[in-house]
Structure prediction request, 430 residues.
Amino acid sequence: MKKFKNLLKKEIRELITLQLIISLLFTIGLFYLIGNLVRTEIKKAGEARMDIYVADLDNSELSKDVISNLSFANFKVNLLKENDRDKAIEYAKKNNINLLLIVPKGFGYSVSRFQLKEIETYSFIRSFSMSSTASSAVVNQVISAINRYLSNNFLKSKFPQIDPDNLKNPIKSKDFVIVKDKIAEGSAVEVTNFVYSQSVFIPVILMIVIIFSSQMVLSAVAMEKQDKTLETLLTVPISRNQIVMAKMISSGLVGLISAGIYMIGFRNYMGGFMGNISTSEQTNAIIQKLGLQFTPEGYTLLGLSLFLAILCALALATILGVLAEDLKSAQSMAIPITFLVLIPYFLSLFSDFNSISLPLKIIVMIIPFSHPFIASQNILLGNYSVVFYGIIYMSLIFTLLILIAGKIFSTDKILTMKLRFGGKKLLRGA
Prediction:
């Protein structure tokens, strides 16, 4: 046991390099920086008043009233002195104005008689960046604010004792959400968005960690084989299976630590983009009432599922690394693992596992890496049996891969086995 511990420490020391530490620190720092930057910009956009420039060609009491009312709808109204459409457009071009509203002549007369009259909006596109698309949303908000103001004024004049909102929306809904045998009053959209914001980073992190860890093991084994240090390791008086297990456990622990670091960084990163999702006390109360929160047991199951998925990937990477001829060829060996990880990854992001066809579901569930992708949602919904079966299945696959790897390590062919493409033989051993 002492020899195994020493071997395990050796493998961990070889994996936790200065380059790995710098890479992890850089990644989490980058995630933190981008997340805070996006969160700050979204907060500024939400608090800032939107600039709009208006040319009032009608100059009626109603048009003046409508324009002045826009300032109460979180718009900063800038009234132009130009009384000609072409001059107003030219002024907007010269002064880098992004949005121009022109109230045409006869606007007040037509609206007062319920005749259709169009307000002209001019959006100046000077780039195709993400921020430049905001003007189209502002246009819709301005028109909606004007329509809301005019319709409310008319309804108030005709029915002064009734709230205009009650006239326009005479039916209101009282929403309830049911999860299993628990029921709570609230919006299903808010609950879904909240749960999604809490679990969306798990598939991304799992994909990154599995690919990253597999590359790490593939490169380590291929480098040992290339530098002939594997021959020295095999002469150590210790079981070959223990050598394989030491490599698996050390890589798995490093991968799990990396997963935790990536989760912290990516959670902050996604928090910047999803900061507008409601996390009010009311929403939190609904989530607690429905039991859609991770318990310590749930976190334990999720961590175990993630760890076994990483171990399965590392066991497969070890076998492929042994078959690699050198470090360069080891890079291409990661393609099968990457492909197997991407299938459940995209399915977990864009579809529901329960709604896919049975043949596709069977194929996906055969892939051991698929189970952690669906574990988080099943844990939240209380479907622990699905998670348990996934853990048992991954344990069996890992045991099988360990036996195969141990059998390969138990023979001297491990030093000469090569997987070549394009030759007469795919696998050969001297």
User: Anything to note?
Assistant: Residues 182 and 290 are 6 Å apart (CA to CA). DSSP finds 17 helices and eight strands in the chain. The chain has two domains: 2-39+182-428, 49-172.
